[in-house]
Amino acid sequence: MVWAGRLRALPLRILSGPRLRACASTMAPPRFFALELPGCTLAHFAVGADAPGAPADPRVAELMAPPGRSYSLCVPVAPGGDPGARVRAARLHQRLLQQLDRGPLKRCQLHRLLCYQPGGGAGTLQQGVLLHDPSDSPDTRRALLALLDSYLEAPRPSLGEFLADDATRQLWQRRWELLDGQGWRQVEPEPVGPAPEPDLHPAVPDLPSAGVFPHREAARAVLEACTAVIPEARAMLELVDRCPARAQKGEFPVIVIEGLDATGKTTVTQAASESLKAVLLRSPPACVSQWRKVFDDEPTIVRRAFYSLGNYIVASEIAEASARCPVIVDRYWHSTAAYAIATEVSGAVRHLPPAQHPVYQWPRDLLRPDLVLLLTVNPEERLRRIRDRGLEKTREETELEANSIFRQKVEECYRRMDNPGCREVDASPPREEVLQTVLSLIRTSCG
């Protein structure tokens, strides 16, 4: 998506890392880029020796052509890509976006930018932004260099400046480098050319370590890396560590009810639990709700680690309750995964991982429910219910309302979940009718 909204302040508690060496270019950026344009379309281009000797994608050329000027800012992940390095890079990227919302940089347009290496696998992706200054003000360049000067520890964002040749429509990029004791200088320009769209979105290889964690230890390692700067992370880990490594379901059925906000989940889960004399549980559980706001303000990797571990705490509650009666769960792993995938994969629905991709598979160590129901309503009805509720919207709800493509991606991710998949239920009819449909599906599927 094109970032048009204003960003909230993030406490600038950046994890410590190794000091920068003499030259800031020790971690060279990948040479391929995926740029998100208006309408959530993606344009791929290459820079340097990998760029073909041809003009760039016309959409890219139009955006970067004079009289304005465009800049790329990318955040490298330190070699090794361990959880601590990933968290540092993610928090730095979020801090960078907030700083671009100030001073002379605030008037510039921001477009989501990913830097990657085709076939590079996990750990090679860099989050970034393309900043376009329609007025080509010298204040913008000065502000960007001053911004880079404020980063004293690795990883430091890499800055590139784009130039256009009006006669040939050829684009060039000049990277800025910091020489020890000599300040900033630009390297020789490198050509920019079109690049083929990869078979798989470049963010997908990183998903298992960036938000769709395949097992508890992967999510735990992320919060462990945060304990020095987020005190609540240690408290969360202490709760998780009290839970069994593999919670086992009891003899009674476990039913999960998923859906976007205002699809009727709260009403249906409450009514279904009363009808079935079932225990009603929610994810994240009440015991961690006091920390939810803290983690909601963190980057996706940290936020999703919190919600993922919340699922494991709920799993221990499910194991205990299902030994004596049926269990209804308001949201579980599917919502954690669906929002992470829709957030991290830029572009439109067609850029999501294909159905049957491993990212849609249930974690191997998480207690599995007997049935997952997905409540759906049309967008207009959902917004009407939100207005009638008169409640404050969450960050995700605000995003769903403002960006219909993001909503479509979340819904499609739900539909692609596998083993177990989601059974869709139209929640548009009157509440009693929806409840009877839900109860009928539960009795048919779970006896």
Put simply, the count of helices is 14
- Mean pLDDT score: 87
Oligomer: single chain
How would you characterize the largest beta sheet?
8 strands, antiparallel, barrel
Radius of gyration: 23 Å
User: What global shape is seen?
Assistant: elongated
Order of helices and strands: EEEHEHEEHEEEEHHHEHEHHEHEHHHEH
The helix content is 25-40%
Would you identify the regions where 5 or more consecutive residues have pLDDT less than 50? Answer: 1-30
Can you count the beta strands? 15
Distance between the termini: 44 Å
Q: Strand fraction band?
A: 15-25%
Structural class: alpha+beta
Strand order of the largest sheet: 2-3-10-8-7-4-6-5
Describe, in plain words, how this protein is organized in 3D.
- By secondary structure, the chain is α+β, with helices and mostly antiparallel strands.
- Helices cover 36% and strands 20% of the residues.
- It is built from 14 helices and 15 strands.
- The protein has helices at residues 58-64, 83-99, 138-149, 207-210, 216-224, 231-241, 265-276, 292-296, 300-321, 333-344, 379-389, 395-402, 404-416, 431-446; strands at 2-3, 32-37, 41-47, 69-75, 109-116, 126-133, 158-165, 170-179, 183-186, 190-194, 254-259, 279-282, 327-330, 371-376, 423-426.
- The radius of gyration is 23 Å and the shape is elongated.
- The two termini are 44 Å apart.
